[in-house]
Structures are given as C-alpha cells and as structure tokens.
Design a protein that fits this description.
Helix content is 48%, strand content 10%. It is globular, with a radius of gyration of 19 Å. Helix 11 links the parallel strand 5 and strand 6. The strands form two sheets. A seven-stranded parallel β-sheet has the order 1-4-5-6-7-8-9. The protein has a two-stranded antiparallel ribbon with strand order 2-3. The longest helix is centred in the middle third of the chain and has 25 residues. It has 351 residues and is of the alpha/beta class. Helix 10 runs parallel beside helix 11. The chain binds coproporphyrinogen I. Coproporphyrinogen I binds next to strand 3.
Length: 351
C-alpha cells in the first residue's frame, strides 16, 4: 500500500458496501461488566458517570476489549443518557436498578424549559473521543453514538428504566404536541452531539433506538422513525463521508423500515429471522443478530452454532458480525473468544 493511502478498515469498507477478506466483527457493549479489568476500574469509582467523565479512564476502558480480542472496531465508552444528564435531569446509576433521573419530565413546563443546545456540557465525551482516537492510532475505526429521540424521551419521562415505558406512551397518546416538542428538542441535540463527535474524531456514528419496539405500530413512524430520519439526513448532509449504523430492537417488519432510512447499515435484533431480512434486502449492510445469551452458556458450542448460523444467513450480502443486543454482564470470556475465532476462520461457501 502507498504510505499516503488511507488505511482500509474492514468496518468502514463494509459500510461503504465494499467486499473485504472476511466480515468485520465487533460487539455491542464490548467494554463493560463481563470484563474483569472493567470491574476492577469500576470498583474504584463511586458511580458509572464518573468513569464516563474521566477522560483517561474512559479511554482505558474503550481500549480494554481490543487488548483481549481481535476486534474490527472500538466504540467510545460512554452512555446514551449523557444528553438527558446534560439537559439537567440529574442522572445516577443505581446498582441493581440501572439509570435513575432525579428530575424526570412530569409536567408540560418541564419540557417547555428544556435547552436545545447542550453540546457545551458534553465536552467530556468529545475529549474522550479525541484521546481514544490518538491512542488507537488508526488500529481500528472508532464508533461514536447517541440514543434516538424516542429512546431518550422514554427514559426522561419515565425517570428510569421500565418494562413497558407506560408513562412515555401515555404522553404520546394524551399530549402528542408536547411529546413532539420533546422529540424535536432531542433531535436537535442529537444532531449537534453527533456532529461534534465526528469533529472530535469518531469514524462512524451509531444510533440506538433500543426501545423502538415499545411503540405500537400506529405510533412508531411518527414518534420514532421520523426523528431518526431527520438526524440521519442532517448528518449525511453535513458529513457525507461518515457512515451511520442504526440499531433498533424491533420485529421483522420494522427492521425493513429501518433499512428504508438513509442509514449505511442496520443492526438486527436476535428476535428477528436474519435470513428472511437478507432475502428481502440482498444488498443492505446488515449487522448483528447473534443471541447475546449464547455467550453465557457453560460450553462454547451454542455460540459457535449461533455465529455459523448468522454467517450463513448473511449469505453473499455485506455483513457486520455482532450481537442482536448488548453483551450481558455474565457473558463468559472463552465464549467471546469462540465467537470471534469462528468469524476469523469462516470460509464463505463457493457458489
Ligand atoms: O455500573 C456499570 O458498570 C453500568 C453498566 C453500563 C455500561 C458498561 C451502563 C449503564 N452503560 C454502559 C456502557 C454503554 N452503554 C455503552 C458503551 C460502549 C460499548 O458498547 O462498549 C453503550 C454503547 C451504551 C448504550 C446504552 N445505554 C443503551 C443502548 C444500547 C442497548 O443496550 O440497547 C442503553 C439502552 C443504555 C442505558 C443503560 N445504561 C446502563 C444500563 C444498565 C442501561 C440499560 C438500562 C435498561 O435496561 O433500561
């Protein structure tokens, strides 16, 4: 290679729809509680946000999975709830319970007063990205990310995680104009946040609409996808060379809706039949779909089978190997090795 040529990373090439020697692999939540080296750092700080706001620790944790495994991407260590925190909702992570907001959105005035520009309070994320990029030194691309407006709004209205996000759904039904004001405010913030991550050095932007599946069919497009499309088109207009990945935990029909957005790739949940999506969309760049619980088994047989099934389902289409949702804290390290080894060894069937 000419020394002035840009480095051809598998992930970025695949996101451009190009063929690579083998599909790229990375894992959602690859830096996290299943790693003893993460737990060692985590035990030294009182709460999770302290890790995100400390540049050196956030960079160290971003790199941890790359020291152990041969992965094709790094993802910046942070959380989707940084935006609501910067909007003044007072975020803490309560052990055993997850995220909790001190000031959830409970009345119209709370929403009307929200700030449309919080990027100046999120400098710690951009610092972590620029430092991580320097530490990576072009080894692999760095993924920046944000939650989708709906997924962020669901937490902000509810005040915490919830099995059904019923308060947020009630707001959609009872006060749709107010909900749209909140979603638009979040969309403005997400656009500015993602642009600043790209300017700081993120090579790829991923949007998580993790709770898109909680919306009924009648509301999904208006309350979630419309804002996702707005963000993707704003990012592609300002940064046409930065690819995007859109993940949502949604069933088959909605997965096809995601592919219809401008996202460069779509993350497919493990509840969806990947082979069926591939048949419908032979040229779409599809990521994910391996069941994260297969990493918790006592032997590696399940994850090896799940990985082979995923590779076969992808067929000749452009593929990014990943899980269908985030890796769980009780995932076994040897199973993660087995998953990655299966991808590295894979020989596509000759037709
Ligand atoms: O105490 C701890 O160690 C907290 C555990 C933890 C970790 C490791 C949380 C709290 N967030 C994270 C990191 C994180 N979160 C990353 C890091 C980068 C990587 O992938 O390695 C990313 C991308 C996220 C994104 C995130 N946070 C999502 C979207 C992805 C998904 O899994 O759907 C969501 C929904 C969150 C909210 C959140 N943050 C943390 C928890 C436990 C949760 C989920 C709470 C719930 O179930 O509602």
């Amino acid at each position: 290679m000419n020394p002035t040529d840009p480095i051809q990373h598998r992930l970025c090439e695949t996101l451009k729809g190009k063929t690579t020697d083998r599909p790229p692999i990375w894992l959602m939540r690859q830096a996290g509680r299943y790693l003893p080296e993460y737990r060692a750092i985590r035990s030294q700080v009182p709460d999770f946000m302290t890790l995100c706001k400390n540049t050196d620790l956030a960079v160290e944790i971003t790199l941890q999975p790359l020291e152990r495994f041969t992965l094709d991407a790094a993802i910046i260590f942070s959380d989707i709830l940084t935006i609501p925190d910067a909007m003044g909702l007072g975020l803490t992570f309560v052990p055993g319970q997850g995220p909790v907001f001190a000031h959830p959105l409970q009345e119209a005035s709370h929403i009307e007063r929200l700030s449309h520009d919080v990027t100046q309070d999120l400098g710690y994320v951009f610092d972590a990205i620029s430092h991580a990029q320097r530490a990576l030194n072009h080894r692999v691309p760095l993924i920046g990310f944000s939650g989708s407006p709906w997924t962020l709004a669901a937490y902000m209205v509810e005040g915490q995680s919830s099995p059904d996000f019923s308060k947020a759904l009630a707001l959609c039904h009872d006060h749709p104009t107010l909900m749209h004001a909140l979603l638009q405010c979040l969309a403005d913030n997400v656009i500015a946040y993602c642009r600043a991550q790209i300017e700081a050095g993120a090579d790829v932007i991923m949007l998580f609409d993790s709770w898109g599946g909680r919306l009924p069919d009648a509301l999904y497009d208006a309350m979630s996808l419309a804002y996702v499309r707005m963000i993707l088109s704003a990012l592609h207009a300002s940064h046409p060379n930065t690819p995007t990945i859109l993940y949502a935990k949604v069933p088959y029909a909605r997965a096809l809706n995601l592919i219809d957005t401008q996202a460069s790739a779509v993350g497919i949940s493990h509840e969806v039949d990947l082979a069926r999506v591939r048949t419908s969309c032979p040229n779409a760049v599809l990521q994910g779909n391996i069941d994260p619980t297969s990493l918790n088994a006592n032997t590696s047989e399940s994850v090896i089978q799940a990985t082979r099934k995923c590779l076969l389902a992808q067929g000749q289409g452009p593929a990014i190997i990943n899980l269908g949702h985030g890796i769980r804290p009780d995932a076994r390290i040897e199973n993660v090795h087995a998953l990655i080894h299966t991808v590295h060894q894979y020989q596509p069937p000759t037709s």
